[in-house]
Amino acid sequence: xxxDYDHYMLKEIMEQPEAIKxxxxxxxxxxxxIIPEVEEFFKERQxxxxxxxxxxxxxxxxxxxxxxxxxxxxxxDIPVEAAISSEFSCEHGHLNExxxxxxxxxxxxxxxxxxxxxxxxxxxAPVIAITNYxxxxxxxxxxxxxxxxAGPELAVAATKAYTTQxxxxxxLTIVLTKKLNGPGEDKIPVLLDALHSLADDVEKCLxxxxxxxxxxxxxxxxxxxxxxxGRGLDYVLALEGALKLQEVAYLHADAYAAxxxxxxxxxxxxxxxxxxxxxxxxxxxxxxxxxxxEVKARxxxxxxxxxxxxxxxxxxxxxxLYIPEAHPFLMPILAAIPLQLLAxxxxxxxxxNVDRPRNLAKSLTVE
Length: 367
Ligand code: F6R
Description:
Elements: H1 8-14, H2 16-24, H3 36-44, E1 52-57, H4 59-75, E2 80-84, H5 85-88, E3 99-105, H6 111-122, E4 127-131, H7 137-141, E5 144-147, H8 160-179, H9 188-196, H10 198-219, E6 225-230, H11 233-249, E7 252-257, E8 274-279, H12 285-296, E9 301-307, H13 311-314, E10 319-323, H14 331-334, H15 336-349
Helix pairs in contact: 2-8, 2-10, 4-8, 4-11, 10-15, 11-15
The protein binds fructose -6-phosphate.
Fructose -6-phosphate binds at residues 58-61, 105-107, 110, 113, 157-158, 243, 247, 363-364.
């Protein structure tokens, strides 16, 4: 039921701390991660000789895949790529039994992703699915299913599906790093600690950003364009934020790798254009600040998203949104919260049906 909320989208955004707790439940133990389905999978197959991993998904599920790629590559000694389902299903590189394919899908019924899975299986590639529906086509046809436990997601826009997918991918990363003796093994204890406070941190993000985002959404009401910029994981987050704003607020929002603006897109920056600058990754922060200064020099109206107390970022932006500091891998989950809320408020202030955006369907069963 909708209980206290006007829309499913807001209800599902607010449910994220609980949804994430369910994703972690019975998997995140004191000093370890155990995913029984993955244990079974490894018993059945010799997977220690994996040479490549591809994470396949569509839309928001592709963005989770891109986050997963960056995280897995830091922890493992294996090349990892993230592919768009509809592209992977028509043209893909070498596929064989040493190539692990991970399919991401909330519904488990997206035709493009099912087609990608069939392709992978045709060449003998083992397939792990991360979905929110156990009995879905992808859940049934994969060799191993990691169920996200997000609970039903009724709004068309994916919100809790996205944050629980990333959470599940991080759990899988930890398991794979151990099984394949990845060079990131010594980074696991710190990551485990951070996962224990993830749900609380998400709750804090909701509380810390909701009012400010509601106000900023009113400001965007007379704007036709909005840019999101970021580097590394923040770039993927920018892509996800732009997609949400396009589908829910019908706002022409575009995401760019922050360092790429000067190679062309900067020509579109005129005084007052809203730019959301994501700066949540400590190792990329100085470069992110330089890129923020570049758009500020063209008089863009910049809203920075960074971790609490980072006054170097707050000094160069027009408005700052603080979120709690957590492990860098978890920041794409935390920083997604204000972007989801922005899409929600920007859609409602324009009077749109945010739960049922025009031209879209929850489950895409055609290719
Ligand atoms: C965006 C959105 C879509 C879906 C995409 C894949 O908010 O909801 O981009 O992420 O259609 O759907 P699933 O995850 O069900 O395969």
